[in-house]
Amino acid sequence: MKLYRTRPGILAEHNGQFHTIDSPSWDELVVREDLLRFLMQQCEQRQALGVSVPDNLLPPIGSQEVWAAGVTYFRSRDARMEESKGAGGGDFYDRVYHAERPELFFKSTPHRVVGPEAKVAIRQDARWSVPEPELVLFISPGGKITGYTIGNDMSSRDIEGENPLYLPQAKVYDRSCALGPCLLISNESLPAATEISLQILRAGEPAFAGTTALREMKRKPEELVEYLYRSSTFPQGCFLLTGTGIVPPDSFTLHAGDEIRITISPIGTLVNVVG
Ligand code: DO4
Ligand code: MG
Question: Which residue in 58, 99, 110, 177 is a FRET match for 28, CA 20 to 30 A apart?
Fold first, then answer.
């Protein structure tokens, strides 16, 4: 079951058919602990619409906070150790990779999030920027993973590498987070073989491509959620990016006009252009 937030309203895709979903708001729908069951009932009660994948897609977020986990893949640990070695920060990343407590950081408020086909941004004062393709969990107020989406944790590697304490500036700025194209609503975990792939096109030509699989993630999604919900409440639920396992080589930086395509096949493809 896929849930889309579109300009005219909320749509669910079930068995290849689209249905309108009646809800006063996105937030009031997605906070439900029984979201999958509720949507199944709505789809059974409603006539299918004769539409294909909707256009006018909005990011699948209402008023939720967006959080992120870091250094959950060996590739991210490696890249971060390298970028920060001059600043004496390398050791932090190795320690957090092996530590019991994960790295969790605040990524975005809803107004900084963009949806499918919208422009993501590079910071004006950054020289080295990359996309981070990540599986994103949607977690209910009760702490249950009720959905999944695709995320791009845009990052300024030079700022982060200069000093780990600059992380919030490297990570949080306008249009630094993309989510979409939909929420995959499921009570099942995604299989470990699920692949995340990134393609970057420059002037229509491949500039970088990489693939990883969820089995490469060091932590379980539930473990990340358990830490995030310790001593914190999320009345409207919450999004959690689970970290990147794909980092382009150090010689690569994004340019304005680059097209970023992130695919996680059970969810879809999130496409954004650098503005
Ligand atoms: O530790 C810095 C951020 C790590 C991150 O965003 C990631 O591993 O995906
Ligand atoms: Mg990240």
Answer: 177
Partners of 137 in the beta sheet? 148, 240
Atom of ligand 1 nearest to the CA of 72: 8
CA distance 79 to 75: 6
Q: What is the pTM of this model?
A: 0.97
pLDDT digits (tens, 9 = 90+) for 100-137: 999 999 999 999 999 999 999 999 999 999 999 999 99
The atom number, within ligand 1, closest to the CA of 71 reads 8
Neighbours of ion ligand 2 (CB under 5 A): 132, 153, 244
157 in Cβ contact with 244 (< 8 Å): no
Number of other CB atoms surrounding residue 273 within 10 Å: 14
Residue nearest to atom 3 of ligand 1 (CA): 70
Burial class (CB in 10 A: 0-12, 13-18, 19+), 244: buried
Q: According to the 3-state scheme, what is the secondary structure of 137-152?
A: EEECCCCCEEEEEEEE
Pocket test for ligand 1, best of 75, 132, 150, 157 (most atoms within 8 A of CB): 132
Asked whether the predicted pLDDT for residue 53 surpasses 80, the reply is: no
C-alpha 261 – ligand 2 centre gap (Å): 16
Name the residue with the closest Cα to ligand 1, atom 9: 243
- 92/108 Cα distance (integer angstroms): 23
Q: What band does 207 get if pLDDT is binned at 50, 70 and 90?
A: very high
